[in-house]
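testing teh design pipeline on a random one, pls ignore if ur not involved
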């Protein structure tokens, strides 16, 4: 089975030829994997990772805050940049809706605007992966997705 078929079989409660695998790693881990397998190697294939290829539009909205110690994403979530010795990971520390209790709180929240994103390359990006990989996009309302 191709990775796409394997993941779809599992999603559809069918029996795949083996358990689908995935990997989420820090940039330092990806750099080490590229150093080990070679810059031109397809790490997903080398490690027999099935995964789902995530495709997102390019952010072109207002400049986002970052100062080397923390950053804020387009959802308004603040992340502390934590150094763990060989790299840095982002730890969410201040979700903007954590204390929302009313509709008024939700109305006052600065929701991302559609014009903050350039969707023009997503279809071509999805086509590159369509035959082999399952591609998804989970962004706007967390789990409203489009599967190509």
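output:
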């Amino acid at each position: 089975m191709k990775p796409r078929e394997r993941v779809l079989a599992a999603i559809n409660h069918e029996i795949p030829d083996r358990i689908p695998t995935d990997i989420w790693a820090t940039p330092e881990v990806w750099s080490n994997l590229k150093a080990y397998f070679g810059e031109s190697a397809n790490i997903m294939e080398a490690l027999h990772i099935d995964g789902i290829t995530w495709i997102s539009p390019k952010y072109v909205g207002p400049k986002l805050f970052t100062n080397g110690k923390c950053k804020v994403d387009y959802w308004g979530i603040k992340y502390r940049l934590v150094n763990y010795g060989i790299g840095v990971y982002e730890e969410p520390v201040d979700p903007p809706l954590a204390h929302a209790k009313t509709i008024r709180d939700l109305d006052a929240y600065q929701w991302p605007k559609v014009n903050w994103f350039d969707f023009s390359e997503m279809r071509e990006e999805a086509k590159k992966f369509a035959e082999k990989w399952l591609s998804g996009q989970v962004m706007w309302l967390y789990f409203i997705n489009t599967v190509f």
